[in-house]
Design brief:
Length: 287
């Protein structure tokens, strides 16, 4: 956490990185907080590039946002790891420590919980079952986020269960009761009894099942380009509550901004900047 009032630097690392919206969010945060001279940039970096790049950064660097493919490398390279980053098995945030080195965190968990609460209108009840489609890095953050919300049971629907190890491990570390289902064998109509759905797979994969899945009243569809997705349209038509990947992006940035600056995130300023940058395609509610 930064307490230095002088100009500092931050950036987002990833590959590809040219379309990242993180500079929009953090630039807006710095301006709203009056942090004159603070800068935020994009840096093209793969997983193998990350350790050397991070080690070469001077003391003026307050923190880094990390996107694919470097999230595991960020976790492995850190001097300190937060419990939620350890649970996910990946880090999207590196923060300069006062004593030297870097602390790894995963604010993607906040992205999931914030999006589901604010846009999805989801408040868990005892006995709720969640459905997660897919088993990539976003799914791992999703299961940990669901656990943070109080969900205890998850049905993980994947193409190949043997490849779901990382997400399954994350769910177990978060003390979730997990059932892994093979995509080709699932009766999607039976999933409608779930309380909440998180979709992390491409729109075309979900397309044959959108009518059944839209029967789940609270949905986080992490895909937001192109928009709207068929699943989003079906959820809206059924009167369900919809959270999106843009909501997730916004809410994960709040925690990063606070860790970089040591100040409360200017949520409205960040939300408004993201709305403008994306053509006001989504309302991005904050509560």
């Amino acid at each position: 956490m930064s307490t230095d009032p002088g100009p500092r630097k931050a950036a987002v690392l990833g590959r590809p990185i040219e379309h990242s919206l993180s500079p929009v969010l953090h630039g807006a945060a710095f301006r709203a907080l009056g942090l004159d001279g603070w800068t935020y940039e994009r840096i093209e970096a793969g997983a193998s590039d990350l350790p050397g790049l991070v080690d070469g950064l001077g003391p003026e660097w307050a923190g880094l946002s990390v996107t694919m493919p470097g999230k595991r490398a960020a976790l492995d390279h850190a001097d300190e790891v937060t419990p939620r980053a350890a649970a996910v098995g990946a880090a999207n945030t590196l923060v300069r420590r006062a004593e030297g080195g870097w602390r790894a965190d995963c604010t993607d968990v906040e992205g999931v919980t914030g999006a589901l609460r604010a846009a999805g209108g989801y408040t868990p009840s005892t006995g709720d079952v969640a459905v997660v489609l897919g088993a990539g890095g976003t799914a791992a953050a999703a299961v940990v986020g669901l656990a943070d919300l109080g969900v205890r049971q998850v049905r993980l629907v994947v193409r190949e269960p043997a490849r779901a190890g990382e997400t399954l491990d994350a769910a177990k570390r978060a003390a979730l009761d997990v059932e892994v289902l093979r995509w080709s064998e699932v009766d999607f109509a039976e999933l409608t009894a779930a309380a909440v759905l998180v979709n992390t797979v491409p729109p075309d994969a979900v397309l044959p099942h959108v009518e059944q899945l839209a029967g789940i009243g609270r949905v986080l569809d992490v895909i937001y380009h192109p928009w709207p997705t068929p699943l989003a349209e079906a959820v809206t038509a059924r009167g369900g509550r919809l959270a999106t990947g843009l909501d997730m992006l916004l809410h994960q940035a709040f925690g990063q901004a606070e860790q970089f600056t040591g100040l409360p995130a200017p949520r409205e300023a960040m939300r408004d900047a993201l709305r403008v940058a994306t053509g006001n395609i989504l309302p991005l509610p904050l509560s």
